[in-house]
Design brief:
mainly alpha, two-stranded parallel sheet, 2% strand
Length: 349
């Protein structure tokens, strides 16, 4: 009697629950609450994770993922040096060389160099350096130059703060210096960086044009099937060994996930992915190895998140179509009405 009752209990025991999980964190929490729950990886998200890795690799191979460059800006020291050079060129021609040497000598002194080192850098003797350091620049500079020298450091800080347009610099300097003198102070630095910034803009325009030449959907279809109408992708597959390995691994993963006849076993696929020379694919294989049991169940069973994901997307679509036009009560009524139309057997009344 006891054996019969125990056999009946085994027959009537409920099957273990199945959890189709997107992330391992949720699965760990639920498994700790009920050890009988088995985790099954979601096939859709597995393919999505592979797509993010593989498409970027192909874009790198065809040179489509060129990173846009930032516009260059000078630092404060470079800007100040150019501004002082422009200020020196404002004065009389007979004083320009002497003013320039005086400024260079003062800069070298501020850097902590000795008289001998300053003389060697300027190409003069030490007595000449002494005279330059003790020369009264106010007697050599014109009134406009003296005004510019007082604001030179301020203009250099403004330019170093990523401001390189004449209009903005004039606006930030304000009434400290007339616009005519400001334009004369920044001619060299503006001209030097105008060509550099033009080169960067042309590069970014070319990068954007290349980014738009081929969509991710076209690349993903080629990765999964090996078929494409793009001659560029065909050439990449023939010329680059890494592209051929990537195609083989991705097609093998697709067959394995969908349980096709000639699919590899999970252990064989992981070994093949780790042997390739692409680091992102190796990292993806390590990610699959951590959830080996869940991925194996996904390959062998028909469980899926499709119904749940579809229901969530439907509720989101209804909610977004009513944004800022309804309340929660009306949203609930619309969701129930939508279910009544699409699945009338759930609401017989």
């Amino acid at each position: 009697m006891t054996a019969f009752s125990s056999s009946m209990e085994r027959q009537q025991a409920p099957p273990p629950a199945v959890l189709v999980a997107v992330t391992q964190a949720y699965a760990e929490i639920i498994r700790s609450a009920s050890p009988s729950i088995q985790q099954v990886a979601d096939r859709f998200h597995l393919m999505k994770n592979l797509k993010e890795v593989a498409v970027d690799l192909v874009k790198d191979m065809i040179g489509q993922r060129r990173r846009p460059q930032e516009l260059p800006y000078p630092d404060e020291a470079e800007a100040y040096e150019c501004i002082v050079g422009d200020i020196c060129r404002m004065g009389e021609a007979r004083h320009r060389q002497k003013v320039r040497q005086c400024m260079q000598a003062r800069r070298l002194r501020d850097e902590g160099q000795t008289m001998a080192e300053m003389a060697e850098a300027l190409g003069v003797n030490t007595r000449r350096v002494y005279i330059l350091l003790h020369t009264d620049l106010s007697k050599l500079l014109m009134p406009g130059q003296r005004m510019c020298m007082k604001t030179a450091r301020l203009i250099a800080r403004i330019i170093a703060g990523r401001c390189l347009t004449i209009k903005d610099i004039i606006q930030r300097v304000g009434d400290r210096l007339p616009p005519r003198l400001i334009r004369g102070c920044i001619q060299t630095i503006i001209g030097r960086y105008r060509e550099k910034r033009r080169t960067v803009r042309l590069y970014n325009q070319e990068a954007w044009r290349m980014h738009r030449t081929m969509t991710s959907a076209q690349i993903w279809k080629f990765i999964l099937t090996g078929e494409t109408d793009s001659q560029q992708l065909k050439d990449i597959a023939k010329e680059k060994t890494e592209a051929g390995e990537l195609l083989k691994i991705c097609i093998g993963f697709r067959k394995m996930i969908h349980a096709e006849q000639d699919a590899l076993q999970l252990e064989q696929w992981i070994r093949q992915a780790r042997e390739c020379g692409l680091k992102p694919i190796k990292d993806f294989a390590d990610y699959i190895e951590k959830d080996r049991l869940a991925v194996e169940l996904a390959c062998k069973t028909g469980f899926s998140n499709a119904l749940l994901e579809g229901t969530v997307n439907k509720a989101k679509a209804i909610k977004r179509s009513m944004y800022n036009r309804a309340n929660v009560g009306l949203l609930r009524a619309k969701v129930i009405l939508h279910d009544t139309k699409s699945m009338p057997w759930l609401h017989p009344n």
